[in-house]
């Protein structure tokens, strides 16, 4: 009996020692199950672990844990750009009201179905469409039109609502960061008011934590019913060098984590702003190289990947680093 008791005690001690030899992270449920194991996933986990280990060299106080994310091509698909699809519908409606728009670009391209031109439109061209289609509208009118679009519109190739095309790995990353005390913000070149309509339901990011391009607004007493009315003038273009400006204006702190993608070079300055500071931040760049499950495309001059190599950013290969792309396993 004593011998059996000794063996049982020895086995328990061995099991206890083995348990403490295994990192606690390995014992916990995987917070990023849609990410393949490898250096990219590990670098994210390592950064978050350092940032939340009090007393460690990489510790970041909770109030400074700011994470900013581009939207199109970073949090959800951008072929086509979702706001572009929305604005195409709006342009057709506005041309019926003002026929002169049909002779101007990019409105002419919209009516003629010039898909190549539409796909190449940058944020400034999208905002030009926004000023022409929504100048004079109240914020409430714009929000109603945007909500109606999201309720009815479907992706032309994948055939599902755009809000179901958020990337599963990025949704997990947002949740993982928030679970570790990070504030998650959107900083996109797209229209701020457009994204705010769906940001909370789609990403868990409340509208007050969305930064984007915006039109000028004015207060209108509205015959005793005060409203904010959108003007046909651009207030802020939140793209390229405009992103750090928008972040400072809305947050007042430099991000310690930022994510963008390779499409147009529009995220380079935000990632540089995050990475290069007294406390080095984490810069994540999404490379669209998965033609089978999503789309494969690069910016023409390769500026984003070049900046990533020079700046030591973490580059995500959608094809290699993601087990799945969309929540429903596409």
From TrEMBL:
Magnesium in keyword set: no
Signal peptide: 1-28
Keywords tagged on the record: Hydrolase, Signal
Pfam families with a match to the protein in the record: HAD (PF12710)
Highest taxon, organism lineage: Bacteria
Single GO term (MF): hydrolase activity
Transmembrane segments: none
Protein name, as recorded: Haloacid dehalogenase-like hydrolase
């Amino acid at each position: 009996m004593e011998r059996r008791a000794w063996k049982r005690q020895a086995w328990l001690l061995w099991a206890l020692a083995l348990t403490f030899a295994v990192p606690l992270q390995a014992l916990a449920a995987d917070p990023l199950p849609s990410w393949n194991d490898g250096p990219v996933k590990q670098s994210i986990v390592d950064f978050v672990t350092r940032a939340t280990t009090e007393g460690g060299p990489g510790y970041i106080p909770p109030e400074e844990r700011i994470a900013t994310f581009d939207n199109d091509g970073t949090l959800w698909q951008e072929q086509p750009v979702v706001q572009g699809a929305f604005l195409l519908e709006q342009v057709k409606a506005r041309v019926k009201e003002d026929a002169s728009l049909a002779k101007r670009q990019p409105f002419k391209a919209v009516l003629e179905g010039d898909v190549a031109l539409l796909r190449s439109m940058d944020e400034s061209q999208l905002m030009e469409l926004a000023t022409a289609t929504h100048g004079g509208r109240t914020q409430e009118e714009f929000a109603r039109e945007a909500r109606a679009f999201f309720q009815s519109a479907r992706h032309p190739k994948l055939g599902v609502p755009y809000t179901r095309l958020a990337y599963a790995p990025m949704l997990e990353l947002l949740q993982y960061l928030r679970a570790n005390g990070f504030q998650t913000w959107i900083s996109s070149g797209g229209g701020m008011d457009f994204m705010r309509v769906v940001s909370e339901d789609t990403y868990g990011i409340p509208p007050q934590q969305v930064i984007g391009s915006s039109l000028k607004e004015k207060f209108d007493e509205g015959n005793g019913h005060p409203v904010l009315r959108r003007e046909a003038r651009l207030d802020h273009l939140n793209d390229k060098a405009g992103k750090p400006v928008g972040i400072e204006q809305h947050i007042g702190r430099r991000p310690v984590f930022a994510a963008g993608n390779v499409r147009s070079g529009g995220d380079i300055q935000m990632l540089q702003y995050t990475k290069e500071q007294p406390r080095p931040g984490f810069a994540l760049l999404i490379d669209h190289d998965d033609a089978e499950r999503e789309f494969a495309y690069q910016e023409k001059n390769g500026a984003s990947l070049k900046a990533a190599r020079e700046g030591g950013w973490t580059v995500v290969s959608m094809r290699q680093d993601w087990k799945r792309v969309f929540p429903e396993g596409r």
